[in-house]
From TrEMBL, chains A, B:
Entry protein name: 3-isopropylmalate dehydrogenase
Enzyme nomenclature, EC number: 1.1.1.85
Organism (species): Cereibacter ovatus
Oligomer status and interactors: Homodimer.
Subcellular location: Cytoplasm
GO molecular function list: 3-isopropylmalate dehydrogenase activity; magnesium ion binding; NAD binding
Length: 365, 365
């Protein structure tokens, strides 16, 4: 049987640096565990624009469709701020999500013991926090039509976007959330604004339908998204799995990520329907951005990207043990006080560069 | 000259209880300061539905249009959850906002010194916090057409809402934000998702236009709303005035409110264009909801509603000194350790009921 294929799209800013460490980890799994991938690389975001004039070339899109999993670094940077909306780096990422139909975006918000002091929240509020946000990723206001800026009669303008969800779009992401909950603490909280948006009413009804018909064993609650933001700040440990739409998911998952104090640590998985080989279409990427201010300086923390690869092992390749092994190595290194600049707190630690962190994790493996 | 008129809409849940304390404060200003209002009362929300079958009667709407200021308690409760979307308690509030054209919703997120320990955030992150969120309140996805749940050909359904902003809708709320900033720390941060939504691009451009043409002296920055949620959690004191749209404002202002740990304390003002007498159309309400679980028990904290009246003194009646006097009385009472149940922490204090808190504030005045 052929090796599973990985397409690496390192992208912009710190993307290539953090991805370099992931490549070393992939190499380690090949050398030491006989877990070998066919790795290829291509361009996305500003890096693709510089070469092709678009943030994702058609050939790259085709390769992503073929790959068993895509690993993405980060996209964007001030250099590209002046570009037209249609060719901005983000459009490359959004095209991947949409055309691969990666409807379930899994964003764990986890607080690492060694880093609980980093949170702006009190330690007892966040220590041990482990929630999973499932964000719908291919629909809603991100993709709904009509959209655009239109001239008004009096010479002024109107900006329009459309929030649009179908029964099936809601049901499939709800199923992803319920499946995950069954393997966790069996609780799902669904968030929308059903009190002001009809699309939120449909969201609530369809999530409830999936629950009643397919997952009655999972505990389901509903919450307005504004209250959700409050509750995340007040007492995040009340949640297990949260399922929400594309836009609320964008804001709430970033809020949750920041609660943990471990932003440079958080991975994500974006999953679609199973391919012919049974694996889901999948893209893995760190939650952090391209951090142009520190790009190229060897300061970036590669852990979020490395943990994204761990998610790939778990969700694409059914290698839960290997994933757990990699996650444990990261925890060991943190417990040993190994720190990239972003993790360096008042209590000190051993300062390392991006590759120094890679070295430490390889040693711990 | 006739006394200025106040329309009180106490609404549901704890609304009537907290409003009873506000009425005593209004009485005090009349007796002791010669500041007399013509006060009348009417129904909104579930209370209106119970009597009229709608959450806001046309006659009430007309009275609100005439009033110099409207004071609202809270709307909603489990009893009304089964009602159709069109007559839910919230629709009464939304009708007031829309028909009075209250486009600028001012939501201060302020941390009271005596309560800094109540926040889930570390004390040094929130102590002294004082930010003002200006939320657009009459447009965007709350009111855009088309909207609704539509049948699809295959028997499934589609939920649709429309995010829609015009040049003028953006410019006028931006002006409110810049005006406030000039009286504060002269900084405005505007939040949207211009990287994925064209309506966000228009928002950014129009806010920038107002800045460049009318308020070049105010410091303006732009931030994506997801990053805004992160930054609010990470270091809220970086902000002075935040201006954002209706939906982001709903979520971000609740997030900011919870940061302060003083949710039962936070007032809001919703302001529209000036009326013939020069006063803006205005509605004042606490940020907290109707709290049906404690309604009628005399446990509710009336401070948010009382501080909403202080905002009315300041923004509708140009009585900044009287407003400050009332705010100082509240601070004194808190510093003295007077505590409704929601404010009772491990360090203790003097427990009081809703009216006990009213007594204390009257005494401090
Ligand atoms: C880069 C941007 C388009 C993206 C989004 O809004 O989805 C990012 O914020 C994210 O959450 O992955
Ligand atoms: C009650 C509800 C309609 C309202 C809103 O969504 O605007 C509330 O959450 C608020 O923020 O005032």
């Amino acid at each position: 049987m052929a090796n599973p294929s990985l397409l690496i799209l390192a992208g912009d800013g710190i993307g290539p640096e953090v991805m370099a460490e992931v490549k070393r980890i992939i190499g380690w799994f090949g050398d030491k565990c006989g877990v070998t991938f066919d790795v290829s690389e291509d361009l996305v975001g500003g890096a693709a624009y510089d070469v092709h004039g678009v943030p994702l070339a058609d050939a790259t899109m085709a390769r992503a469709q073929e790959a068993d999993a895509v690993l993405l670094g980060a996209v964007g940077g001030p250099k590209y701020d002046v570009l037209d909306f249609s060719v901005k780096p983000e459009r490359g990422l959004l095209r991947l999500r949409k055309e691969m139909d990666l409807y379930a975006n899994l964003r764990p918000a986890q607080c690492f013991d060694a880093l609980a002091d980093f949170s702006s929240l009190k330690k007892e509020i966040v220590a041990g926090l482990d929630i999973m946000i499932v964000r719908e990723l291919t629909s809603g206001v991100y993709f709904g039509e009509p959209r655009g800026i239109f001239p008004a009669e009096d010479g002024t303008r109107v900006g329009i976007n459309t929030q649009r969800y179908t029964t099936e779009e809601i049901r499939r992401v709800a199923r992803s959330a319920f499946e995950l909950a069954r393997r966790r603490n069996n609780k799902v909280c669904s968030m929308e604004k059903a009190n002001v948006m009809e699309s939120g009413i449909l969201w609530r009804e369809e999530v409830q339908w999936v629950h009643d018909n397919e997952y009655p064993d999972v505990e389901l609650s509903h919450m307005y998204a504004d209250n959700g933001a409050m509750q995340l700040v007040r007492w995040p440990k009340q949640f297990d799995v949260i399922v929400t739409d594309n836009l609320f998911g964008d804001v709430l998952s970033d809020c949750a990520a920041m609660l943990t104090g471990s932003l440079g640590m958080l991975p994500s998985a974006s999953l679609g329907a199973p391919m012919a080989n049974g694996r889901p279409k999948a893209l893995y990427e760190p939650v952090h951005g391209s951090a142009p201010d520190i790009a190229g300086l060897g300061k970036a923390n590669p852990i979020a990207c490395i943990l994204s690869f761990a998610m790939a092992l778990r969700y694409s390749f059914d290698m839960g043990d290997e994933a757990a092994r990699l996650e444990r190595a990261v925890e060991t290194v943190l417990a040993d006080g190994v720190r990239t600049a972003d993790l360096m707190g008042p209590e000190g630690g051993t300062p390392v560069s991006t590759s120094g962190m890679g070295d430490a994790i390889l040693a711990a493996l």
